[in-house]
Design goal:
It is a single chain. The protein is α/β, with parallel strands linked by helices. Helices cover 32% and strands 16% of the residues. The two termini are 25 Å apart.
């Protein structure tokens, strides 16, 4: 099943677009979770929330909601995968308060971190078998059989990443779930994705994962609510193609009064 969401939910320019003007920001998560079944939390990368915060997110969301959480930059960008035991233990000690709401853990590696499959393997070995992990390397030296072997052995997903409507990573299937991040489209108005780009990504996912395997898809092009619009458009394409897809906003909730019309171009 394709699980559609956005990278984050607290964006001020979504007020009056996705969020009703009079809705207090403290209720935005409830509004979001009633319309999407998953979200990717990026702020944990900059400052790891306390365990109570993760527990509160669990209590404020429906039973079928899941939260993908980006690993703290302390492990990936400061320690650069060295001595991973303490950062991973601290992260899990807090994020596991989500209980069954915890989705994949995202490890986004620095763009200037060259390949070190042994360090990645040692890091992935610290995660329990019931915690899904997705890895987003960004240095070209990672695209080797050694990297692919580590991901397969540890049952971690290679993040498929897009920028400008095109893949910036190999399209390896390394485990039984997929993880796609869409950072910026080329359609108008910026940074929307056009139908051709969305249809191409749908075909790639359908070729790699069947309908009983989860494929997490997060739109990271948040300015102006583009991520919400593109998630709705992607869900429409997936539904017409006969693919199972998680809930997305419908009717007025899909766009809000101030969002621009659909994309044109690629």
């Amino acid at each position: 099943m394709i699980l559609l969401g956005t990278s984050g939910w607290q964006y001020r320019d979504w007020r009056g677009r996705f969020y009703p003007t009079g809705l207090p920001q403290r209720l935005w998560l409830e509004h979001f979770a009633a319309r999407f079944a998953t979200v990717e939390v990026n702020n944990a990368f900059y400052r790891l929330p306390e365990r109570d915060t993760f527990a509160a997110w669990r209590d404020r969301t429906p039973d079928d909601f899941c939260v993908a959480v980006k690993m703290s930059r302390y492990l990936t960008h400061i320690k650069r995968l060295r001595e991973p035991a303490e950062p991973v233990a601290r992260f899990l000690g807090r994020a596991t308060a989500l209980g069954d709401r915890l989705g994949p853990v995202l490890l986004q590696l620095p763009p200037n971190l060259p390949a070190d499959p042994a360090a990645l393997d040692a890091t992935l070995a610290l995660f329990p078998a019931d915690v899904r992990v997705a890895v987003e390397p960004r240095h070209r030296s990672w695209w080797t059989d050694a990297t692919r072997g580590v991901l397969q052995r540890r049952r971690a997903a290679l993040v498929w990443a897009d920028r400008g409507g095109r893949p910036v990573t190999p399209l390896w299937r390394t485990t039984d779930f997929g993880y796609l991040r869409l950072h910026e489209g080329r359609a108008h108005p910026w940074p929307r994705y056009g139908r051709a780009a969305l249809a191409s990504w749908l075909r790639r996912l359908a070729a790699a994962f069947d309908d009983v395997e989860p494929a997490y898809v997060y739109f990271n092009n948040d300015p102006g609510g583009a991520a919400v619009l593109d998630a709705v458009a992607f869900a429409g394409l997936a539904g017409r193609a006969g693919r199972r897809v998680s809930r997305v906003p419908t009717g007025p909730d899909a766009t809000g009064p101030a969002l621009p019309p659909g994309p044109v171009g690629a």
